[in-house]
Amino acid sequence: MRRFNPPFNGKRFLLNKNTGEIHDLDKETDACRINDIVPDHIYMGDSYMGYLIYAQMNHCPPPNSCFYCQLEYNRG
Fold this sequence. Notes:
The protein has 76 residues and is α+β, with helices and mostly antiparallel strands. The chain has one helix at 48-57; strands spanning 13-16, 21-24, 42-45, 64-65. Strand 1 and strand 2 form a beta hairpin.
């Protein structure tokens, strides 16, 4: 479910900068545990390519899609 409060600001995709995990908030499940992510570890973006660039420039773990909300893109 989209969240419009900071740091989410109505964007669809969330990168956990600490783990590299990408979540799709339109397909979020309880198993995603979005509420447990420290706000300072959240980067909201508009595209998967944007996450790759952000992660590389900021020395984050390599991005991978969440098993629960983006299984089709998860690399294990």
